Amino acid sequence: MKPGSSGAGSRFGSLGRALAQRDAQLFFAASVVSWTGLWVHRIAVAWLAWELTASAFWVGMVAFSDLAPAVVFSPIAGAIADRVDRVKLTMASQAVIAVEAATVATTLATGHLSIGLLLLLEMTSGTAASFAQPARQSLMPALVPRAELPAAVACNSLCFSVARLIGPAIAGPLIAWGGVVPAVALNACAYAFACLSMLGLRVDAAERRGHAPEGSMLAEVMAGFRYVGRHPGIRPLLIFAATASVLMRGVQEILPPYVERLFHRGPDGLAMLTAAIGLGALFAGLWVANRGRLTGATALSVGAVAVQAVATVGFVATGYFPFALLCAAVLGAAASVHGISTQTLMQSAADHSMRGRVLSLWGMVTRACPASGALALGTAGEVFGLRMPTIIAMLLALGVAAWAAGRLPVMVRELEVPH
């Protein structure tokens, strides 16, 4: 048992055993704080972009600017995370995000923030997040015993879901009371706290770095691509996740136009919908975390995409806001099950020396693909309205889920069975 753990955690299943570790407690507490700030920030800047432009396209561009840098930087960040101190890299990345949020708040308060500058600043934050993601997530196996890794990965997603629930609950009233400035400033404080909390982690030297540099950075980046491309389980799982994310996740990234055009509501409606998504994700995350095993995770990953597509169709097809809240909760739950299951499978199947690079590609999927989907939906929404393009995307997502279902036996053998 790792230092700081407690046998009492076993009474609460896999999740309790994972959270009995001292380092895990510190790590996940900081995660909740920083991600709560992140969700407040996301809602604030999305609403700000909508107020500045009244255009779904520009709201999509703000989401794209935050998430798209992952396309360029995630593979590089993964290679760096495998060869430098992961704790220090995480701290540096979180510090940049804190400074970016403070800059947005300051320039807005002084009347110097334009939509162009906002895009540039969000791109800076997105670049930093591309480096933080593989470095931070690569530390997870050092926080808990290996048997509890699935629960730790689930807990990581659970923290995101908790933040997704708390963040909107804070953002709506805060924006209504003081505008966007205090909401974005809150994110700066949250990330500063997360950065400083990393100093308290007791991570073994062997886990702080994947390996000593073995060649050029480009060679190591390409080695990561080759490793994933040749892996018979990770390759199809990543392709499936990427395609599904492009088609489905854009809806969550550009909620303000849906809120106003389909349901004729303001920041309160946006906060309620975001909180409903977070609530669904929270309960689903708790279930997956306490499930605590790899067996069946591949089927969960595929099935959850089909459920999310159906729930999203229900969300956009109705004009009745309470039903939309229910659909939002279901799609949040399905997205949580898919994300937790997919990341757990990748964490478990990847070699230690390749973990940062594999997780960086997963980070690219979770950041760049929603950005692409958001931009496409925002653009299509200006021409055809939001409802029909969204329904078409969900029907395509169901087709992708059927494709993945046909490859389940191979993926299960390569990802769930020890080799």
From TrEMBL:
Predominant localisation class: membrane
InterPro entries named among the record's database cross-references: MFS_trans_sf, TM_effector
Segments passing through the bilayer: 26-50, 56-80, 101-121, 174-199, 234-251, 271-289, 296-317, 323-346, 358-378, 384-405
Membrane topology classification: Multi-pass membrane protein
Gene3D superfamilies tied to this protein: MFS general substrate transporter like domains
Keywords attached to this entry: Cell membrane, Membrane, Transmembrane, Transmembrane helix, Transport
Domain of life: Bacteria
Entry's localization field: Cell membrane
PANTHER family: INTEGRAL MEMBRANE EFFLUX PROTEIN-RELATED, STAPHYLOFERRIN A TRANSPORTER
Name of the protein: MFS transporter
Organism: Siccirubricoccus soli
